[in-house]
Amino acid sequence: MDLAVVLLATALVVVIALLAAAGAAVLARLDGGTYPTALKQAATTFAAVVTLAAAMTAALAALAAVYG
């Protein structure tokens, strides 16, 4: 059961990161950027979302260890 929750949470984070990256790429293209610029913006946004999710997971795990 725990493995299923972890896998579903991971899949949700990846989907949200992909949606944010796609949005960033579209906005970069609408702003007049080239395709490489839009791809760079999308990659940066994807990495930022995944990093934020990892940082939040670490913080929650630390809190769970202290208070759990």
Description of the structure:
The chain is mainly α. It contains two helices and no strands. Helix 1 packs antiparallel against helix 2 (35-67). The model has no long low-confidence stretch (mean pLDDT 96).
Label this structure with key terms.
68 residues; 2 helices
Along the chain, the helix and strand elements come as HH
The total count of strands amounts to 0
Q: Helix coverage percent of residues?
A: over 70%
Sheet/helix structural class: mainly alpha
Major sheet: size, sense and barrel closure?
A: none
Mean pLDDT: 96
- Please count the helical segments: 2
Strand content: under 5%
Residue stretches low in confidence (pLDDT < 50, at least 5 long) are none
Distance between the termini: 19 Å
Nearest-angstrom radius of gyration?
A: 16 Å
The general outline is elongated
Compile the SSE list and pairings:
Elements: H1 2-30, H2 35-67
Characterize this entry briefly:
The chain is mainly α. It has helices spanning 2-30, 35-67.
